[in-house]
């Protein structure tokens, strides 16, 4: 089974190869569109049509921190039952026996959408709740942001991933973890071997680099 995954496209709609499952891990809307009405118009006018043209049997979409329309204004879009995709927001879907779970939430940064609190105590409570909902029997985890130490290197060599997310991954042990958010486009797939010798492969599928140039297309992952 072939997965084609992208993230952080910010309005660019790249060509997607034929695949079984297409995944967009968030930051869909154009950088210039941060108002809910403009994002709604763009999603309805362009993105849904783009999804319909992708040569994939199943399409999974998740919001990112720039996608305000999904954060508090989903009612501005047509009914979710009519969306041409599986939309994941602290929820999951099973496709051909693969259990997939997605959450858009990330640590606080500039007070964007789906941000945990900037208060450390409150953020810890939120992370425990959101990440605690990730089931322990999933095969593929999709989050907008990375875990600490995997695909999370910034230009100034800081690790910007979430430690609480990594801690949960060590419990859940998904086979594959797909994410973006940190534009670490040169990060190769990385492997974590758990204490029972099961393995998680990490893929940062962001398409734009830290200067917001599109430098990468879809990442193909064979399951």
What do you see in this structure?
The structure is a single chain. With 223 residues, this protein is of the alpha/beta class. The protein has a single domain (2-222), classed as Metallo-dependent phosphatases (Purple Acid Phosphatase, chain A, domain 2), CATH 3.60.21.10. It has four helices and eleven strands, in the order ββαβαβββαβαββββ. The chain has helices spanning 36-53, 68-72, 120-132, 163-172; strands spanning 2-6, 19-24, 56-61, 86-87, 91-95, 98-103, 140-143, 176-179, 190-193, 199-204, 219-222. The chain has a six-stranded mixed beta sheet, with no helix packed on it. The longest helix has 18 residues, at 36-53. It is globular, with a radius of gyration of 16 Å. The mean pLDDT is 95.
Please give the structural blueprint:
Blueprint: E1 2-6, E2 19-24, H1 36-53, E3 56-61, H2 68-72, E4 86-87, E5 91-95, E6 98-103, H3 120-132, E7 140-143, H4 163-172, E8 176-179, E9 190-193, E10 199-204, E11 219-222
Parallel strand pairs: 1-2, 2-3, 3-4, 6-7, 7-8, 8-10
Antiparallel strand pairs: 1-11, 5-6, 9-10
């Amino acid at each position: 089974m072939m997965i084609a995954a992208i993230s952080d496209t910010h309005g660019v709609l790249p060509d997607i190869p034929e695949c079984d499952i297409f995944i967009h891990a968030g930051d869909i809307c154009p950088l210039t569109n941060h108002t809910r009405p403009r994002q709604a118009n763009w999603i309805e006018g362009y993105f849904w049509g783009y999804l319909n043209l992708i040569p994939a049997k199943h399409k999974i979409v998740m919001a990112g921190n720039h996608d305000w329309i999904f954060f508090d204004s989903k009612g501005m879009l047509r009914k979710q039952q009519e969306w041409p995709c599986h939309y994941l927001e602290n929820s999951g879907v099973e496709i051909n026996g693969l259990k997939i779970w997605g959450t858009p939430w990330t640590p606080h940064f500039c007070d964007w959408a789906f941000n945990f609190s900037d208060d450390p105590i409150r953020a810890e409570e939120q992370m425990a709740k959101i990440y605690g909902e990730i089931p322990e029997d999933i095969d593929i985890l999709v989050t907008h942001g990375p875990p600490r130490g995997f695909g999370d290197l910034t230009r100034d060599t800081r690790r910007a991933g979430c430690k609480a997310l990594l801690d949960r991954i060590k419990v859940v042990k998904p086979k594959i973890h797909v994410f973006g958010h940190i534009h670490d486009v040169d990060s190769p797939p990385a492997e974590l071997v758990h204490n029972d010798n099961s393995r998680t492969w990490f893929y940062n599928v962001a398409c734009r680099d830290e200067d917001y140039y599109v430098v990468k297309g879809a990442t193909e992952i064979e399951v």
